[in-house]
Specification:
The complex is a heterodimer of chains A (226) and B (465). By secondary structure, chain A is α/β, with parallel strands linked by helices. Helix content of chain A is 54%, strand content 13%. The longest helix of chain B is centred in the middle third of the chain and has 55 residues, at 251-305. Chain B is elongated. The chains are: A alpha/beta (226), B alpha+beta (465). The A-B interface holds A 1, 19-20, 22-23, 25-27, 29-30, 33, 65, 70, 95-96, 118-119, 121-125 and B 282, 285-286, 289-294, 296-301, 303-305, 308, 323.
């Protein structure tokens, strides 16, 4: 966390929706500390939709399980928000990763959309990074989701053609990281990342895409075998 | 025990015999207990008076024979059966007439709608006669377990229609009708020796005339009087069996009913188990896991602040530590809900006292001091009370509550009372359904009385074994 990051977040208006008061307060405190402007903190999906209409925020951080049934209210609300206000970025937090949820959420355009395991908030800097990415129109897909999708992918044979490093790059691309982000994560140069990426696209017969989120879409579609 | 082969293994026999009522004592003078004999034991027939008409005749012998012949007359059972046969016959006509009157009026007036109110009286007449018959049989020592008939609620066309379409009700009506004939017959046969004897004594009858006057008639009548008890008791028994066939429970049907009840219970238990697992999962995910994440978040933020503002980092660490304490408390509570160690170590009284000790409102616990419970029953009582108290604290807004655990006959009764807002019901999603399933799983009964506005009383009775 540095001064630059704080100024970056200034003016980003956020709504937090989580029925666990403890965690909601923690996330609100984190966001306020990091310069975000938390305009509302709510405990259920109906209140979330109302708050979105009232405040027109830039970002919603939404827990999947909320009252009354504690199943997927948050997810439904997130999809609804995306439908009504495509310009609002949404980050969905889940107790556990469920690929079916992910598929539902990430079905359309993944721009400005995130789906992370709830415990990712503990890694404060990465969590904030994911938030910023989503607000900027990128995407953030949990590594766990990606590995589940990979595990179930029918493209196993083609994926075997990738080197371990290329596979890592593919996973990070699917998570929504930019070239710079991938470089930082793998501690390699930007040039090296670009080389890996073009290798991946070549080996998998994919059209190179501009922009991180379109790339995510392409990779996810490929992995699902569509 | 109807094994055809001789039971060789003595242990096995005693093991089985222990479930049966003790065998009747051997008749006096039959040579002591026969258990010592090898091979299958032959029980001598019951000591019927044995008439040996051969041999020397003396007045003493005649006296003895007469005593043997007439002694059954002193048994109350003989006269009870005679009374039973008489009453059954006479009352059959009384009730049949009442039935026909109600029946013709009720069904005759059905089309102008008045009759619907008399349909109940029609069936009630038959049912009353059935009650009388059962009581008469009980008087003679024959217990008939009445077949259950669903009670009618309300008066009106719908309840009348339910009554008319109920096979069990028509069975009782059928009993009354068939009984009129059968009781007449049974009475005639059962009392026959006595009535013929009366004809001899008081003369004038064609039988007397045929047999050539009182010289033959009077001794014959005297003999017939001795025959009477030997006829009336078996006839009474047979008539009793007829009553039982109509009115008594069908064992197969009872077994089927039990099976369907058990099937329902099993489903309830499975539902309760599933609900329990969901509750545990939710407690873990929404409780402890969230707390751990929140703790992690505090620590993560503290980490970012530790260089720039140590004071802020310190606050966050303190907050994290406090949350750890909360999590430990929650885990302890969760564990207690899964398996209460204190129940095993200290018994139900101590376990329930521990449950209420943490309650924010006064909850009194009264457990009968000498109460001994089997493990299953104890757990059922504990979880019932535990769940009930949790419900009270969560939903009832009560300011005071009480738990009573007492022995009532062969059951243990649990009463949980609170002065809260009421409105608890089995389908209300407040855990009442789960409690009922738990109680039913150990063959208990469960009622909840909880009007809107309160108070609420849960009342459960569980068989001790």
């Amino acid at each position: 966390m540095n001064e630059a990051a704080v100024t970056n977040n200034t003016g980003v208006r956020v709504i937090v929706a989580d029925d666990s008061v403890l965690l909601r307060d923690g996330v609100v405190r984190l966001l306020n500390d990091s310069g975000f402007d938390v305009v509302a903190a709510v405990g259920d999906a109906a209140a979330l939709l109302d708050a979105v209409t009232d405040h027109q925020p830039d970002l919603c951080v939404v827990d999947v399980r909320m009252p009354p049934t504690h199943t997927d209210e948050g997810l439904r609300a997130a999809i609804e928000i995306r439908r009504r206000h495509p310009q609002i970025a949404v980050l969905v937090l889940s107790q556990y990763v469920e690929e079916r949820y992910a598929a539902e959420l990430l079905d359309g355009d993944v721009a400005g959309l995130g789906y992370l395991l709830k415990d990712r908030v503990i890694d404060v800097s990465h969590f904030l990074e994911a938030l910023r990415r989503v607000v900027a129109g990128g995407s953030a897909v949990d590594a766990e989701v990606i590995s589940q999708i990979l595990g179930r992918s029918r493209r196993g044979n083609e994926l075997d053609r990738l080197t371990p490093r290329e596979r890592q790059v593919l996973e990070l691309m699917a998570e929504g990281l930019s070239n710079a982000g991938i470089a930082e994560q793998l501690v390699v140069s930007g040039g090296a990342v670009e080389k890996h990426i073009s290798n991946v696209f070549m080996k998998l017969d994919l059209e190179p895409e501009d922009g991180a989120h379109r790339r995510v879409l392409a990779v996810l579609r490929y992995l699902r075998g569509a | 025990m109807t094994t055809g082969t001789p039971v060789a293994a003595g242990e096995r026999e005693t093991a089985l015999v222990s479930d049966l009522p003790p065998p009747p004592p051997p008749p006096p003078g039959s040579g002591g207990p026969h258990g010592a004999a090898t091979g299958p034991s032959v029980t001598p027939p019951p000591s019927e008076p044995h008439f040996d008409l051969h041999g020397e005749w003396s007045w003493e012998r005649v006296g003895n024979l007469a005593k043997q012949w007439y002694s059954p007359l002193a048994e109350p059972n003989v006269w009870l059966n005679a009374a039973y046969l008489t009453a059954s016959m006479v009352l059959a006509w009384v009730f049949l007439i009442a039935l026909l009157v109600f029946g013709s009026v009720a069904f005759g007036l059905l089309f102008i709608f008045v009759g619907v109110f008399l349909v109940g009286a029609f069936f009630a007449t038959a049912s009353a006669f059935a009650d009388v018959s059962v009581a008469l049989n009980r008087m003679c020592g024959r217990d008939i377990d009445r077949r259950p008939v669903r009670p009618l609620r309300g008066v009106g066309p719908r309840s009348a229609l339910r009554a008319v379409s109920d096979r069990e009700r028509w069975r009782v009506v059928g009993f009354l009708a068939a009984n009129t004939l059968v009781a007449q017959l049974a009475f005639a046969i059962g009392i026959l020796p006595l009535s013929v004897a009366m004809q001899f004594f008081f003369g004038g009858g064609p039988v007397n005339w045929l047999l050539g006057g009182p010289l033959v008639g009077v001794p014959l009548a005297a003999l017939l009087i001795g025959l009477f008890p030997r006829v009336v008791v078996p006839v009474g028994d047979m008539k009793g069996r007829f009553d039982a066939w109509f009115l008594g429970t069908d064992r197969l049907a009872a077994a089927e009913q039990r099976v369907s009840a058990l099937t329902g219970q099993r489903d309830d238990i499975l539902d309760a188990v599933a609900a329990e697992r969901r509750r545990i999962e939710r407690n873990l995910h929404d409780g402890v896991q969230q707390q751990l994440v929140a703790i992690g978040l505090d620590l993560g933020m503290a980490e970012t602040h530790v260089d720039t503002s140590p004071e802020r980092a310190r606050e966050l660490i303190v907050s994290a530590r406090e949350k750890v304490q909360g999590s430990i408390g929650e885990l302890r509570q969760l564990g207690r809900g899964l398996h209460p160690a204190i129940l095993e170590d200290r018994g139900i009284d101590a376990a329930l006292s521990a449950v209420v000790a943490g309650a924010p409102i006064p909850v009194s616990v009264h457990v009968d001091a000498d109460l001994r419970l089997s493990r299953d029953v104890e757990e059922a009582v504990y979880f019932l009370a535990n769940e009930a108290i949790a419900n009270i604290l969560k939903h009832s807004q009560a300011t005071v509550a009480s738990v009573h655990v007492m022995r009532v006959g062969r059951n243990v009764r649990v009463i949980v009372h609170d002065n809260g807002v009421g409105g608890a019901s089995v389908g209300g999603g407040t855990g009442v359904g789960g409690m009922r399933a738990r109680v039913r799983a150990v063959d208990g009964t469960f009622t909840v009385t909880s009007p809107k506005g309160g108070p609420t009383t849960l009342d459960a009775e569980i068989p001790l074994s």
